[in-house]
Amino acid sequence: MNTLFRLFPLAACLLLAAPWFSTAQQRNGLTIVPGERAADTTVNVGVAAKWNMISVPLIAADMHKDTLFPSSVSNAFYFDVLYIGDNDLVMGKGYWLKFDSAETVPLFGSAVHQDTFDVVAGWNLVGSISDPVPVSSVTTVPGGITLSKFWGYDNGYVQASSIVPGEGYWVKASSAGAIVLDGGATAAPRAAPDPYSGLHKLVIEDARGMKQTLWFGEATAKQSGTVAEMPPPPPQGIFDARFSDGAWVEFYNGDGEHRFAAKVTSAAYPITVRWEVDERDRREIVLNESVRMTGKGSLVIAEEGPIGVRAGVSGVPAVYALRQNYPNPFNPATKIAYDLPENAAVKLTVYDLLGRQVAVLADGVEDAGVHSIVFDATGFPSGIYFYRLEAGAFTDTKKLVIMK
User: What is the CA radius of gyration of the chain?
Assistant: First the structure.
């Protein structure tokens, strides 16, 4: 459903009366002839040396893929239940298209500053208009259609904050209707909570630099409405990584053991798995049944296969470990945690930048297990400090920052 004629009837008449281009375009049942030079614009579209999700953000004289994107090296594919090749491009649709080298492609035609794009119930691969549009300003017809996050593709699926001219995006709609893109709209206030707060980060990157960020952790009440499903996988041969149930985030609750896995397709091996684990989660979190994930770390995996994660209630740790304090920086208090695989004489001390001992937080024999202690820095000046754990033959030192 095109709003160009409904909103600007006089301009539409001028376009039809004085065509500058020779080729008319069919959009949603309407014949559109790009108009006078004064109404024309150039939109520069950046593409990478790989598969891209692209769209046509204006009305061009010739909407064929080879005219708009002459250096592309594949057919264009749109999505309608499955991927369909079609090189006659239309506004409103997003497409997969491959390039051999990164470049900026200039597209010339009549600008469209507001439009409506039809959507079906479920996932839609949609296009853009001639102006950037904050995703928080996108509305629906009829109102009340619930939309997922908008997803673009940059070496892997990424959640978008703005719809950029020339790029394509996935969005899931709760029912059929249309989305309205308005280049003059401003971003609406963010009402939704941060879905990543308190979660653990998992980044899967292959040997070509293709990567996907996934999240997991204990769900909170604020995250209960988060749409965890990722968009449909890309066409065959394009890198993709997601949890086995198709989600970008795995939530768990309770004290039991939780197991889930990520699957990777069309990757160049070896792959590297990086993690950032929130220290507030006291569970034992293990990657591929072999590596305990704490703080920040990584693992190189040489062979194909699922990437398993096990999160369970912490028992007796397998090794000694000193955790990064949380929060950091802090004022006035922070928590320091450490793991003891056996009973041990423990000493936990804090030093200033000059190496002077300024506090003793623990000094004595402690049982095996996961321990934590609060460091109250009231009365300490702002600055960088170090805390040191001595437990049996194990020693480790980390940095903390008091910021007042």
Answer: 27
Per-residue burial over 344-370, b = 16 or more CB atoms within 10 Å of its CB, e = otherwise = bebebbbeeeeeeeeeebbeeeeeeeb
Phi (first) and psi of residue 185, to 5 degrees: -80, 150
Q: How far apart are CA 229 and CA 242, in angstroms?
A: 9
Instruction: Give CA–CA dist 56/58, Å, rounded.
Output: 6
Distance, CA of 279 to CA of 294 (rounded, Å): 7
Per the CB < 8 A criterion, the answer to whether 118 and 1 are in contact is: yes
pTM of the model: 0.69
Q: What is the pLDDT of residues 49-66, one digit of tens each?
A: 999 999 999 999 999 999
276 token code pair: 């950032």
Q: Please state the separation of Cα 257 from the chain's center in Å.
A: 27
d(C-alpha 321, C-alpha 339), whole Å:
5
CA-CA distance, 295 to 277, in Å (whole number)?
5
Mean of pLDDT over the chain: 86
Question: Distance from CA of residue 197 to its chain's centroid?
Answer: 14
